[in-house]
Automatic annotation (TrEMBL):
Transmembrane listed as a keyword: yes
InterPro entries, alphabetized: Glcn_transporter
Protein name per Swiss-Prot or TrEMBL: GntP family permease
One Pfam family from the record: GntP_permease
Source species taxonomy: Bacteria, Bacillati, Bacillota, Bacilli, Bacillales
UniProt-listed PANTHER family: BLL7963 PROTEIN, GNT FAMILY GLUCONATE TRANSPORTER
The keyword Ion transport appears for this protein: no
Transmembrane segments: 6-36, 95-125, 137-154, 174-195, 227-244, 250-267, 402-425
Keywords assigned by UniProt, alphabetized: Membrane, Transmembrane, Transmembrane helix
Domain of life: Bacteria
Length: 426
């Protein structure tokens, strides 16, 4: 058990210091293996690389299409047009709210979290540039909009964290609507006010918007595309997923083709955009895969079953046991859905039967499990590393904000959800 704790702390500290996950993940995995009595080379070549390769196999196509789509939206001016429209709607001074709403709409609509990051980043750049807000706040804003209330709380959200519990608790994705709305508001409103405070603090300290790489903003030639035409590719992706029930790759391909057709005058920029998108996809999937590889070594460590068993038998009530088990395992593995899967595969059926015996509405377990899975974003979290890889920010720049909006406030919301369950308010 000490081996896992030491390895986890080493990984988080090194990640926070800004060292590349590509080498600190294998080092941290080696620490776990060494202190656990595992064969280090076998742990790396088998466990680590299996986890790494499996993630790349499953997600690289989505990363690639999502990155290319986002880059095309950027170079054609569509992202800038959408950002300008949102700026007019919410006010230029409310750039954080504009990014938050954009990310939330896409996430609730079922667009993959990774794709949301790729698509929202160019929009966020334009909004934050207009409002002169430090880019350090962009990662926290995207995390709040995509990785919190729309991922786990709001009833009906088309994300995997809201789907997995339905398989174990015989519920629907609309489970516990009152609890979901209340906890979602806690995360959304609390996170927004924190990020607004953080942006104002940075502005007063003289930290405004700076261009990525320290370069000056380049004025694009020609007029920006029509706002309706700029929104169409985004709407096409959301509608393809939620109305036409198409696969994510098919939906993204439709978005890419539509961007091509609607912005054909910019065809000279397409090749460069696709090349840049592909490079960004590789960076993001490799960084995230390294974190997943570390989680694979941890899950195969001799002490992991004991940790899992201890968590799954926590005293203090069914909902508390469910919440803590899910949250801690999601923290250890660096994956919200990963922690949820481990918990529910081990005790999901037992939790469900106990709930029925106690007269507890299974919808409570559904929503609490989802909420707890999201309150887990530590420095080595795979999705977080993707955010940093895309935005160019580091843990030193932005993890403090993400800790507040992606871990602390969601944890508070989870506690509120558990308290609501005690009075039957679901």
């Amino acid at each position: 058990m000490i081996a896992i704790i030491v390895g986890l702390i080493a990984l988080m500290v090194m990640a926070y210091l800004g060292w590349s996950i590509l080498w600190i993940a294998p080092v941290a995995a080696a620490i776990v293996a060494l202190l656990s009595g595992m064969d280090i080379f076998d742990a790396f070549t088998s466990d680590f690389m299996t986890g790494f390769a499996s993630f790349a196999r499953d997600f690289f196509p989505v990363f690639l299409f999502g990155a290319v789509f986002g880059k095309l939206m950027e170079v054609t001016g569509s992202a800038r047009t959408v950002a300008s429209f949102l700026s007019k709607i919410v006010g230029k001074e409310r750039a954080i709210l504009g990014v938050l709403l954009g990310a939330a709409i896409l996430t609730y609509g079922g667009v993959s979290l990774f794709v949301v990051v790729f698509v929202m980043y160019p929009l966020a750049l334009n909004l934050f540039r207009q409002a002169d807000i430090s880019r350090k706040v962009i990662p926290g804003t995207i995390v709040l909009g995509a990785f919190t209330f729309t991922m786990t709380a709001l009833p009906g959200t088309a994300q995997v964290q809201n789907y997995i519990p339905t398989e174990f608790f015989n519920t629907t994705m609309m489970a516990a609507p009152i609890m979901g709305i209340v906890t979602g508001l806690i995360m959304a409103v609390g996170g927004y006010f924190y990020l607004s405070y953080r942006a104002n603090k940075l502005t007063k300290a003289g930290e405004g918007f700076t261009e990525p790489g320290g370069e000056e903003a380049k004025e694009e030639e020609g007029q920006d595309p029509n706002v309706i035409l700029s929104f169409l590719p985004l709407l096409a992706v959301v509608i393809s997923i939620n109305v036409l029930n198409l696969e994510m790759l098919s939906a993204l391909l439709i978005g890419i083709v539509l961007t091509f057709v609607l912005n054909f005058k910019s065809f000279k920029k397409f090749t460069g955009a696709m090349n840049d998108g592909a490079k960004g996809a590789v960076t993001a999937v490799v960084n995230t895969g390294a974190a997943v590889g570390f989680g694979a070594v941890v899950k195969n460590a001799p002490a992991f079953p004991a940790i899992k068993e201890a968590l799954l038998n926590i005293k203090g009530g069914l909902t508390i046991s469910d919440a803590l088990s899910t949250q801690v395992l999601a923290m250890i593995t660096g994956s919200a859905s990963g922690g949820m899967n481990i918990t529910l595969n081990a005790l999901g059926s037992e939790y469900y039967q106990q709930a029925l015996d106690m007269g507890l509405n299974p919808e409570i377990l559904h929503r609490v499990t989802a909420l707890a899975s999201g309150a887990s974003i530590l420095p080595h979290n795979g999705a977080l590393l993707t955010v940093f890889a895309i935005t160019g920010m580091t843990h030193k720049d932005s993890y403090k904000d993400i800790f507040f909006v992606g871990l602390l406030i969601p944890f508070i919301a989870t506690v509120v959800g558990i308290l609501m369950s005690y009075i039957g308010l679901v």
